[in-house]
Automatic annotation (TrEMBL):
Pfam families: Fung_rhodopsin. It comes from Rhypophila decipiens. Residues 31-270 form the Rhodopsin domain. The lineage of its organism: Eukaryota, Fungi, Dikarya, Ascomycota, Pezizomycotina. It is found in: Membrane. Its main location: membrane. Residues 311-334 are annotated as: Disordered. This is Rhodopsin domain-containing protein. The chain crosses the membrane at residues 13-35, 47-69, 89-116, 128-150, 170-194, 206-227, 247-269. It is a multi-pass membrane protein. The keyword Oxidoreductase does not apply. Keywords: Membrane, Transmembrane, Transmembrane helix. GO terms for cellular component: membrane. Belongs to the SAT4 family. The keyword Membrane applies.
Length: 374
């Protein structure tokens, strides 16, 4: 029978911190879903994957809590055999959750790119995203296989009474972490060429770059985790040495979940800073007045809302016409025929479009970048 021990003070502090992080991730996820609901838009694949990753993060916290009462932080010799077997069995589940959760987070980011940039299959960015999806899929399959194949027979991975052969588990953890760092950097770099090609000022480009590079926080934690594993983790004294490696692993997961929700909270921030303006956008994502443009069909959008809006001074001379596709939504939620004219001189508004001259508005919305003038 599994015996329960008093919680070690260090383990207790780490568990409290992890619980607080999970609370923050759930709040961020709730605001993300609320923003979708309030704006009248449907959830997309990146939203569903974010929900799934949050559920996996909660499961990781539950395992962390179970370990805390089973002898985590105590010397190996002070823990009975049943606790050791259960600890190692939970470690296998923990590894599976880590592999699937990190993959779910990466898939969420990639589908987020597909939505806000309306990536076409044959485009350069589309091909890069497809390659990234394939890489993450293969990487995840390899992670899952190593959990089952690291020891022969499999029972030897959690019960020392089984005679078998096991590979270097710490080396496998470090290898997984290294691939994780490379994958994170590659995925974060994908939209940079699109962002820096936008017709906006440099400070706005830098701001967007910072938002998309929030994942570097996770990369830094991954590097610390890779350093901690060979230094702190001793499988022969697992219960006492697992405290800090488990902390860095859970911290990496929870910060990653938090980071994927931050770029989607632009609408929520706009609501709290300007509730009336947010309400008008929510009631009509393409408002007739006041606002930069009106849908030609006059229909309310039912797809994805815009994520970011960037205001920059108008530049250049001569009329500039910007349009984006309409009609039935494509696979990324793009819809509604709209057109805006940026004139050198004031002109009479076209049907369905209100035109002024002072500022140019770029909306990243409905999976499409639309440059407008008002």
């Amino acid at each position: 029978m599994v015996r329960h021990f008093p919680i070690d003070s260090t383990v207790c502090a780490i568990l409290i911190g992890s619980t607080f992080l999970v609370f923050l991730t759930l709040v961020a996820l709730g605001l993300r879903c609320w923003g979708r609901y309030y704006n009248g838009t449907k959830l997309y694949w990146d939203d569903y994957l974010a929900i799934l990753s949050s559920a996996q993060g909660v499961a990781i916290l539950v395992i962390q809590g179970m370990w805390s009462t089973m002898g985590e932080g105590l010397p190996f010799a002070a823990v009975n055999r049943n606790n050791l077997v259960m600890t190692k069995m939970l470690l296998i589940v923990f590894e599976l959750l880590y592999a699937t959760c990190t993959a779910t987070i990466k898939f969420s980011v990639l589908f987020f790119y597909l939505r806000i940039f309306s990536v076409q299959v044959g485009s350069t960015l589309g091909k890069l995203v497809q390659c990234a999806l394939a890489f993450v899929t293969l990487w995840t399959v390899g992670n899952l296989l190593q959990v089952y194949l690291i020891c022969t027979p499999f029972e030897a991975s959690y019960d020392d009474e089984f005679v078998g052969a096991c590979g270097n588990r710490i080396a496998s953890y470090i290898g997984i972490g290294a691939f994780n760092v490379v994958a994170d950097f590659a995925i974060m770099s994908l939209p940079m060429s699109v962002i820096w090609s936008l017709q906006i000022d440099r400070s706005s480009k830098i701001g967007l770059t910072v938002v998309f590079f929030l994942g570097f926080i996770t990369t830094g934690i991954s590097l610390v985790r890779m350093i901690s594993l060979p230094r702190d983790l001793e499988l022969s004294n697992l219960t006492q040495s697992m405290v800090w490696p488990v902390f860095w692993t859970t911290l990496e997961v929870h910060i990653s979940i938090l980071c994927i929700n931050v770029p989607t909270l632009a609408y929520v921030l706009r609501y709290f800073t300007n509730p009336r303006g947010a309400r008008s956008v929510a009631s009509d994502p393409m408002p007739a007045s006041p606002g930069p443009l009106r849908s030609v069909q006059g229909r309310r959008q039912t797809g994805m809302d815009f994520e970011l809006d960037l205001f920059t001074p108008s530049s250049g001379s001569g009329p500039q016409r910007h349009s984006f596709p309409s009609g039935r939504p494509n696979q990324y939620g793009t819809r509604a025929t709209c057109e805006a004219v940026s004139p050198a001189e004031p002109v009479a508004p076209e049907e369905g479009v209100q035109v002024t001259q002072d500022r140019t508005v770029q909306y990243m919305r409905a999976g499409r970048l639309a440059a407008l003038s008002h």
